[in-house]
Each structure stands twice: as structure tokens, then as C-alpha cells.
TrEMBL record:
<keyword id="KW-0862">Zinc</keyword>
<dbReference type="GO" id="GO:0000122">
    <property type="term" value="P:negative regulation of transcription by RNA polymerase II"/>
</dbReference>
<keyword id="KW-0217">Developmental protein</keyword>
<dbReference type="GO" id="GO:0008630">
    <property type="term" value="P:intrinsic apoptotic signaling pathway in response to DNA damage"/>
</dbReference>
<dbReference type="GO" id="GO:0003677">
    <property type="term" value="F:DNA binding"/>
</dbReference>
<feature type="region of interest" description="Disordered">
    <location>
        <begin position="148"/>
        <end position="382"/>
    </location>
</feature>
<dbReference type="InterPro" id="IPR036236">
    <property type="entry name" value="Znf_C2H2_sf"/>
</dbReference>
<feature type="domain" description="C2H2-type">
    <location>
        <begin position="549"/>
        <end position="575"/>
    </location>
</feature>
<keyword id="KW-0863">Zinc-finger</keyword>
<feature type="domain" description="C2H2-type">
    <location>
        <begin position="493"/>
        <end position="520"/>
    </location>
</feature>
<keyword id="KW-0677">Repeat</keyword>
<feature type="domain" description="BTB">
    <location>
        <begin position="24"/>
        <end position="87"/>
    </location>
</feature>
<comment type="similarity">
    <text>Belongs to the krueppel C2H2-type zinc-finger protein family. Hic subfamily.</text>
</comment>
<dbReference type="GO" id="GO:0009966">
    <property type="term" value="P:regulation of signal transduction"/>
</dbReference>
<feature type="region of interest" description="Disordered">
    <location>
        <begin position="120"/>
        <end position="139"/>
    </location>
</feature>
<dbReference type="InterPro" id="IPR013087">
    <property type="entry name" value="Znf_C2H2_type"/>
</dbReference>
<feature type="domain" description="C2H2-type">
    <location>
        <begin position="465"/>
        <end position="492"/>
    </location>
</feature>
Length: 575
DNA sequence: CTGGGGAGGGGGCCC
DNA sequence: AGGGCCCCCTCCCCA
């Protein structure tokens, strides 16, 4: 007894689930595009994928072997067993690219299909790209070395199947379909959920230009030639509660599409389709979950803040602005322009504050002017980044993780990390001096304030493990060790997407969540979502009216401690 | 226009 | 590894 259509139905279901991001548990990064998929499916399709998905939820593919447009077809093939054939996709060149990708990914059936097609089409032309580059196996090894690590998959950043594969929903339905399961949520916070198009879609072509292939999430933040296209892949600010139509897939789509088509190298028409997923998801959610009444004020606030995301994200991803670093392989891929893949921005920027180092410099919107610009080169770890010097490039080859003290390169952060620990740690400490102690001053100030606010974080309990550099002490050696890394020259944990380096893995993965727009913590009252539990806790005070932080000087009460602190500054500042 | 407050976001760091 | 807290940045609203 056998159901004749069982396999077909199953595949159809799976593909539909992929379309919705349902149960997708892996993200594949190809250049600037993100694709969501199911590990099981990938693993069943290719031994290569099988090895990749085993330990990683986020996979970077070699952009020399596959580009977003081609990978979309590959993924479609995996989920449907069919090769789509639009006129563009039927071109010989496309089959060549597909063949390259299929070989690389060890999708033998697809490779055979492509070969057949090429043969039939009188091919025989050499494959485009780099046919003589190392074969898939060696590539695989390289990639495995570079692959980065587990990052929870974002539900909306996926690259959905083409309409012909999965059901093609009506526009409204489409939005809903693209909503993922609610435990994972990509998109902007509620305040921009109704933010309209953030004013940045003005130059978008409309309507997902027929036939344009859907594209992965564009993570590139390269500045488009024209201003006003701050909308980018991660920008979840399109769509609007006020005008649901504007949240249509096509509108926002074209945002990224437009953007990426101008910015992606090689003119690869990998428009992004998924950018809107972020926003539309939020919009949809709000649409469905219409909070019964967020106060009118709240609503208007959200509307008014619609522009916040673009700026935030612009800064968040700005690192690509500088060198047009490709976003692959755990670190920036071999830069096409031969520049440093991981330039220490602090150096680029003349020593900007470490905390802001990623973001604020060089942004044309002038954000960098604000805030701590005045700290006078005061990055507290001004050299604390793995630094890939321009001149070192040839020597390092694929070893993008470089130990500053000795100049050795390593292919992975783990190996660098291991290496760093072989150094006499004294060598690794930064002798902080000059402006680098600005933070210390900040901390002093903070402690002054915290004396008013609450107990200092360092109590009097036994803390036998003392840092030799700054004299801070800890209860256990692991914590001390963790702390000591903050004095090291290297930051062993790079963000896969923007390349920013972190001293702690947890910070890096949390940072990744912001790239992927994962907001697992939802407010039951208003539906607003947050990346961190703590934020939600804070936020809930908005609804409860609880104001636990009281100013000892004037009796003013605050929902958030930070606001009390800033309030106290008002008391203490001379002005 | 300005200053203060509220609140969302990100990174650092300790537990 | 993840949670929690602290700090900073930024934006918006409002008086």
C-alpha cells in the first residue's frame, strides 16, 4: 500500500513551510542575502550541507561559488525538485553558474541536470567564475573553517520560495504568511511598526517588478548613490499600520531590490525580497493583534518614531560602508579591493570610543557628531580588535583572524583564541593610557550616581580572584578569565554579518539577534516585542505604572534606572 | 527653541 | 550560554 502523492505532498508542505519561515532552523548567508531553510532538508540534499548544518545555524557560502540569485534557484530546486525556467534563468550562463554552485554544494543531481542542459544547449563553454578554484571538497574544508556559529535563525529574513513553488498568496495573505511563528519575530519594534515607509522608499519602483527574482535579505549597507535610500535589508520600517496597502510585499521589496541592485557588486540582480518581511511581519502582527487600545499617545509616538530604525540600522551595519566588505565567512571575505578585511575602526577613525566604534564613524547622516565624539580619541580599547593590516594581506591568505602581538593569522576565531591563550598574557594586556581611561572616569561618575541609586555592583563578599591589570576581583576564576579578556588586544568573537568583534560570545550572539531582528520577548499588553527579556521587564512598567526608581534629591520617580541616572546628572551638572 | 522625561536600542560585563 | 544589569546613544514628546 502506498500513497502515490505522498512524497510530492510532503515536499510541497515543506516548501510552503519554508515560505512562511515555519520551523526553519538554519539561515544561509550568500553575499548579502539571507535564506531560511530546514536543516533536515538541506542535509538530505547534500553531504556538504549535511556537514554544514550539523553544528551551525548560520551558514555562509562562498560567494565565489554561488551568488544569491543562483542560490535561490538551488534552494528552490532542493525543495521542489524542479529547475525553474524563466527566460533569464534558462540562459546558458545561468546554468553554468548553477553548475558551479551545484558542484560546490555537492548537489549531484542538480549538477547533472545543469550539465545536461548545457550540453543540450551546445555549451562546452568554460564555467564562469573560477573553474580552476579549489574543488568543492577543499572549498568545503575552507568553509567549514570559516563557518561561524550558532545563531538562532530569524524567521523573516528568509528567502522565500518563488511564487511558483509555494502557494502564491494574495497580498494580504502574503503578509500573514510571511509571519512566522510568534516565538521568533523579525522586525522593528512596535514603535516603527506603523511607521510608514520611513520616508526612504521614495525612489522605489513599485510592485516587485514582475519576474524579478525574489531575493534574500540584503545585508549590505553600502551607500547607494542617491541619498534617501536608507532603507535596507534589515530595515523593518516600511509598511504602515495606517496604510496596510503600503505594506505590501512588493513595495518594500523593491526597496531592497532597488537598493541592492545598485549596491551589490557585479550588478547581480539579486534584489531583496525579504526586507519587507521584517516590516510586514510587524505590521501584520499589529494588524492582527491590534492591541486594544494602546493609548493614542503611544500610537502617535510609534508613528512619530518611524524613522528611528533606518538610522539605527544604518549605523548598525555601517561597517560595510567603509570598505564594502563582503559579508561572508565569519569575517569579511577576501576583500576585492585588497583592503583590510577587518580594519580596526578605531584606528580608521582616529580612536573613537570603543563602544561606538562600529557604528558612528563615517556615517553621512552626521550621527557620529553626537554624544561621545568629545571624548578625545577616548576609545577605551582603542586597539582591541583583531586587525587585519593592509600590508599583511598576502601573507595571511585565508587566515583572517590575526593576533596583533605576534602577527600570526588564523582561519577561525577559535584558533586565534586558542593561540592567544598561548601567549604570556602580560603581552596581551593593553597598557591603557591617555584617553583610554575615559571610561574609568565614566565609571566613577556612574558610581557616584549609583551611590544614590543603589548598592554598588562590587560588594564586599569574598572575591579572591583579582585582575592583575585593573584590580577588580571576582568570585571565581572563570569570571576573572572572562574579565581579563577585556584587557586583551584581540576580540575573538566576530559578527558574521558586519564583522564587528566582541570579547564575549554571548555579546556577539546577542548582537547577531539585532541583525536578524529576532525579538522573542513580547509584551502581552501591547504586543511590542523586544530582543531581551530585560527590556520587556522594563517595558512592562509602562503598563503597570510602576516607578521603582526614586530620586533622593527631589523625589522624582522613574520607571527606568537609566532615566533616574540621567535625571541625577541634571541635578549634579553645573548647568 | 530648549530642557527634561520617557523609552527603544546597542554594547560591556558580571553572575 | 544565557540572564540580568549597567551604561550610553538616540529619538520623540511635551511643557
Amino acid at each position: 500500500m502506498e500513497l502515490p502523492n505522498h512524497a510530492k505532498q510532503l515536499l510541497l508542505q515543506l516548501n510552503q513551510q519554508r515560505a512562511k519561515g515555519f520551523l526553519c532552523d538554519v539561515i544561509i548567508v550568500v553575499e548579502n542575502a539571507l535564506f531560511r531553510a530546514h536543516k533536515n532538508i538541506l542535509a538530505a540534499s547534500s553531504i556538504y550541507f549535511k556537514s554544514l548544518v550539523l553544528h551551525d545555524n548560520l551558514i555562509n557560502l562562498d560567494t565565489e561559488m554561488v551568488n544569491p540569485s543562483v542560490f535561490r534557484q538551488v534552494l528552490d530546486f532542493i525543495y521542489t525538485g524542479k529547475l525553474l525556467s524563466s527566460s533569464e534563468q534558462s540562459s546558458e550562463q545561468n546554468f553554468s553558474a548553477l553548475l558551479t554552485a551545484a558542484s560546490y554544494l555537492q548537489l549531484h543531481d542538480l549538477a547533472a541536470l545543469c550539465r545536461k542542459k548545457l550540453k543540450r544547449g551546445g555549451g562546452g563553454k568554460p564555467l564562469p567564475g573560477k573553474p580552476s578554484t579549489p574543488g568543492p571538497l577543499s572549498r568545503l574544508r575552507l568553509n567549514n573553517q570559516r563557518l561561524a556559529t550558532s545563531t538562532p535563525a530569524g524567521p523573516k529574513n528568509h528567502y522565500p520560495p518563488t511564487p511558483s513553488d509555494a502557494e502564491q498568496p494574495q497580498p494580504d495573505e502574503g503578509l500573514r504568511d510571511k509571519l512566522s511563528d510568534d516565538e521568533m519575530f523579525v522586525g522593528s519594534s512596535g514603535r516603527n511598526g506603523n511607521g510608514g515607509n520611513g520616508g526612504s522608499n521614495g525612489n522605489l519602483s513599485s510592485g516587485g517588478s514582475a519576474g524579478e527574482p525574489d531575493l534574500g535579505l540584503d545585508l549590505s549597507k553600502k551607500s547607494p548613490p542617491s541619498a534617501g535610500t536608507a532603507t535596507d535589508a534589515l530595515s523593518p520600517h516600511s509598511n504602515s499600520q495606517e496604510s496596510p496597502q503600503s505594506a505590501s510585499v512588493s513595495t518594500t521589496n523593491s526597496a531592497s531590490l532597488d537598493d541592492s541592485s545598485t549596491t551589490l557588486p557585479g550588478g547581480d540582480t539579486c534584489g531583496s525580497e525579504t526586507a519587507e518581511l521584517n516590516s510586514s511581519s510587524k505590521a501584520s502582527e499589529e494588524h492582527h493583534n491590534q492591541p486594544d487600545g494602546p493609548p493614542a499617545q503611544k500610537k502617535s509616538r510609534q508613528g512619530a518614531r518611524k524613522n528611528e530604525w533606518p538610522k539605527k540600522e544604518a549605523s548598525g551595519l555601517k561597517s560595510e560602508d567603509h570598505d564594502n566588505k563582503p559579508l561572508v565567512n565569519g569575517v569579511a571575505a577576501a576583500p576585492k579591493d585588497g583592503k583590510a578585511a577587518f580594519q580596526c575602526k578605531d584606528e580608521e577613525d582616529g580612536g573613537e570610543n570603543g563602544q561606538d566604534h562600529t557604528d558612528e564613524s563615517g556615517q553621512s547622516d552626521g550621527e557620529s557628531a553626537g554624544g561621545r565624539g568629545g571624548t578625545g580619541g577616548g576609545g577605551h580599547h582603542s586597539a582591541n580588535y583583531v586587525y587585519r593590516q593592509e600590508g599583511f594581506e598576502p601573507a595571511f591568505g585565508d587566515n583572517l583572524y590575526v593576533c596583533i602581538p605576534c602577527g600570526k593569522g588564523f582561519p577561525s576565531s577559535e584558533q586565534l583564541n586558542a593561540h592567544v591563550e598561548t601567549h604570556n598574557e602580560d603581552e596581551l594586556y593593553i597598557k591603557e593610557e591617555g584617553g583610554t581611561f575615559v571610561k574609568e572616569e565614566d565609571e566613577e561618575e556612574a558610581e557616584d550616581l549609583s551611590a544614590t541609586v543603589g548598592p554598588s555592583s562590587f560588594g564586599s563578599e569574598a572575591r579572591p580572584f583579582k585582575c592583575t591589570v585593573c584590580s577588580k576581583s571576582y568570585k571565581d576564576p572563570a569570571t576573572l578569565r572572562q574579565h581579563e579578556k577585556s584587557h586583551w588586544l584581540t576580540r575573538p568573537f566576530p559578527c558574521n554579518i558586519c564583522g564587528k568583534m566582541f570579547t564575549q560570545r554571548g555579546t556577539m550572539t546577542r548582537h547577531m539577534r539585532s541583525h536578524l531582528g529576532l525579538k522573542p520577548f513580547a509584551c502581552e499588553e501591547c504586543g511590542m516585542r523586544f530582543t531581551r527579556q530585560y527590556r520587556l521587564t522594563e517595558h512592562m512598567r509602562v503598563h503597570s505604572g510602576e516607578k521603582p526608581y526614586e530620586c533622593q534629591l527631589c523625589g522624582g520617580k522613574f520607571t527606568q534606572q537609566r532615566n533616574l541616572i540621567s535625571h541625577l546628572r541634571m541635578h549634579t551638572s553645573p548647568s
